[in-house]
Amino acid sequence: MSKKKKHNSSINQVLTQMVLDIFEQNGNTPLNYKQISSKLNVRDPDARGVILDILKDEAFKGVMKEVTPGKFQLLELKTFVEGKVDLTNDGSAFIVTDDPAENDIYVAPRKLRNALNGDRVKVYVYAKSKGKRQEGEVVEILQRNKMEFTGLVKLSEHYAFFIPDDRKMMHDIFIPLADLNGAKNGIKAVAEITDWPAGAKNPVGRVKHVLGQQGENDTEMNAILAEYGFPLSFPAEVERESEEIPAEISAEEIAKRRDFRDTLTMTIDPYDAKDFDDAISYKKLDNGNYEVGVHIADVAHYIIPDSALDREAYERGTSVYLVDRVIPMLPERLSNGLCSLRPKEDKLCFAAVFELDEKANIINEWFGKTVIHSDRRFTYEEVQDVIETQQGDYTEEILQLNALAYKLRERKFKAGAISFETTEVKFKLDETGKPIGVYVKERKDAHKLIEDFMLLANRKVAEFVSKMGKGKHKYTFVYRAHDSPKPDALANFAQFAARFGYKINTKSDKEIAKSLNYLMEDVEGKKEQNVLTHLAIRSMAKAIYTTKTSSHYGLAFDHYTHFTSPIRRYPDVMVHRLLFHYLNGGQSANADHYEELCKHSSAMEKKAADAERASVKYKQAEYLKDQVGNIFTGIISGVTEWGMYVEIIDNKCEGMIRLRDITDDFYTLDEKNYAIIGQRKKKIYQLGDEVQIRVKNVDLTKKQIDFSLVQND
């Protein structure tokens, strides 16, 4: 050890890596210091002595062992693994491998080799030292996560730089003046990386789209879409294909379908809905039972597999609902025209039709293509008014549908479904898109009526296909799966809920669901509702699309799918195609192919949800920008090692109080108890606590709101 100290540490580090490489290159054959010196062409006695010291030192650290006197061998070979880059704030990264049992691999900034956040990379993993974290270096970038970024153009006389909005994009992009595409200094734009020369600190790129002036509503909303990879318009080929689809429904096509045009049919949607993809038909039968049809726009009839329309819908995966706009999965001619179940028009549908008795038991079911003629377009508010006043159009029919929906709902909760009633915040916007007010969207019986019949259709379609074939010969289908909660996450939530006097029974899935439902009922309207609901949801697994016949824990359904929204969800298009194929005697589809489609759909659904949240955060920041200095009452909604999040009770806007700004003590995070604790005075701020806050600062670019504690001002 003494000799090693005499040598420069950085040279030792390089030499150590060279020694370890020799073992790798020789299949980890036991070697002594002379053999290694020979392979490294080291003849100097002092240098050979350093190699011997390195071998002893690495054996002491547990990297290798002395298998026979003087001969050493690595305990663990360096290996190559693949994974995804998760960048940290200091520019280093952790590589998340595909194997959930494997620990993440740390990569220092200088060893990232221009890999960016989210990239899929190949990593050279070093032999692990005892007690140290696994480390490695990127040797190859296998797939870029994204090459396009939103940000600001900064111009000088001879060159331009593009500063990305993405905080995990650590490099500005150099833009040659010839590639500005008309962008001016300070303009917001989308830039694309075109090259990253070896040894260059910054990538080279070009401006792809000019978005507009920073802070303008359209600019910022389009920037959010671009940031999450959603296109701002449809390709010309896709628009052309949609325009070429005939609007007329032929007599030949109607003859292939069950005709519901003389059966009472209605749509029930939000007042500002632009497309109507589901309708309910209702008929009282002679035997006293009720025939209820759930008719869904037959999007798959119009979209030919592997057409430009189909490829575009698949890539998008879903419609995106920002605060002030909808970015549809399909061009307007389809989403608002041909496939929209507008009143007083013949429309093509795919339906699940049920005969129900007075207790909402299913006596018969039928699945197939239909043609409908909607008699009335209702808003939720209109139907709610009929339910409450028992007056208005189709009162008898609506009240009976509501009574049946109640029974379906009751049975669902009795089976163990969980009722998560989250508070949905909506903004009142002026003509420029600026938020001038905030209100909470209420879910009443009219919303639940539609939801219960949609759930029925989704569940029964999934059950119908799941019974086709047995074991390995089960038919391939697209399911919506939701796993049961992780025990640790649920235990932590139960411990926290107990603080508010709520008991969560974790003995069985059914008991968990029952106690969660009691909690959701008790907490409704109370200040802690949002915090507890969001925390409960976070303790649950995430729902995904898959071909595996998994159950849906949250709904307590053994089988569940998405059949009811093909205008806005690509998985529903897949479900329609597969169901129609099987109804016509087709063989089981390729499971591997559909599983890949499911993975993409799940990923796009997450991106859309992230984009929607980003638009809400932007509008919250914009709403509070004119209220800097104002005082509000809030609820602590989250705690981290750098601060605590607070949600204002009145307007549901959320911001952060940074720990460095709480000056009466030194506070640290108590993760287990969802709290931060003062080290000297032991003052505790815990999730769910009510606090008085002042709006300290608003950064629209970062969609960031900073609060300060009033008692700390």
UniProtKB/TrEMBL annotation:
<keyword id="KW-0694">RNA-binding</keyword>
<dbReference type="GO" id="GO:0005829">
    <property type="term" value="C:cytosol"/>
</dbReference>
<dbReference type="InterPro" id="IPR011805">
    <property type="entry name" value="RNase_R"/>
</dbReference>
<dbReference type="InterPro" id="IPR012340">
    <property type="entry name" value="NA-bd_OB-fold"/>
</dbReference>
<dbReference type="InterPro" id="IPR050180">
    <property type="entry name" value="RNR_Ribonuclease"/>
</dbReference>
<dbReference type="InterPro" id="IPR004476">
    <property type="entry name" value="RNase_II/RNase_R"/>
</dbReference>
<dbReference type="InterPro" id="IPR040476">
    <property type="entry name" value="CSD2"/>
</dbReference>
<dbReference type="Pfam" id="PF17876">
    <property type="entry name" value="CSD2"/>
</dbReference>
<keyword id="KW-0963">Cytoplasm</keyword>
<comment type="similarity">
    <text>Belongs to the RNR ribonuclease family. RNase R subfamily.</text>
</comment>
<keyword id="KW-0269">Exonuclease</keyword>
<dbReference type="Pfam" id="PF00575">
    <property type="entry name" value="S1"/>
</dbReference>
<dbReference type="Pfam" id="PF08206">
    <property type="entry name" value="OB_RNB"/>
</dbReference>
<dbReference type="GO" id="GO:0006402">
    <property type="term" value="P:mRNA catabolic process"/>
</dbReference>
<dbReference type="GO" id="GO:0008859">
    <property type="term" value="F:exoribonuclease II activity"/>
</dbReference>
<dbReference type="InterPro" id="IPR022966">
    <property type="entry name" value="RNase_II/R_CS"/>
</dbReference>
<dbReference type="GO" id="GO:0003723">
    <property type="term" value="F:RNA binding"/>
</dbReference>
<dbReference type="InterPro" id="IPR001900">
    <property type="entry name" value="RNase_II/R"/>
</dbReference>
<protein>
    <recommendedName>
        <fullName>Ribonuclease R</fullName>
        <ecNumber>3.1.13.1</ecNumber>
    </recommendedName>
</protein>
<comment type="function">
    <text>3'-5' exoribonuclease that releases 5'-nucleoside monophosphates and is involved in maturation of structured RNAs.</text>
</comment>
<dbReference type="InterPro" id="IPR003029">
    <property type="entry name" value="S1_domain"/>
</dbReference>
<keyword id="KW-0540">Nuclease</keyword>
<dbReference type="Pfam" id="PF00773">
    <property type="entry name" value="RNB"/>
</dbReference>
<keyword id="KW-0378">Hydrolase</keyword>
<feature type="domain" description="S1 motif">
    <location>
        <begin position="629"/>
        <end position="710"/>
    </location>
</feature>
<dbReference type="InterPro" id="IPR013223">
    <property type="entry name" value="RNase_B_OB_dom"/>
</dbReference>
<dbReference type="InterPro" id="IPR011129">
    <property type="entry name" value="CSD"/>
</dbReference>
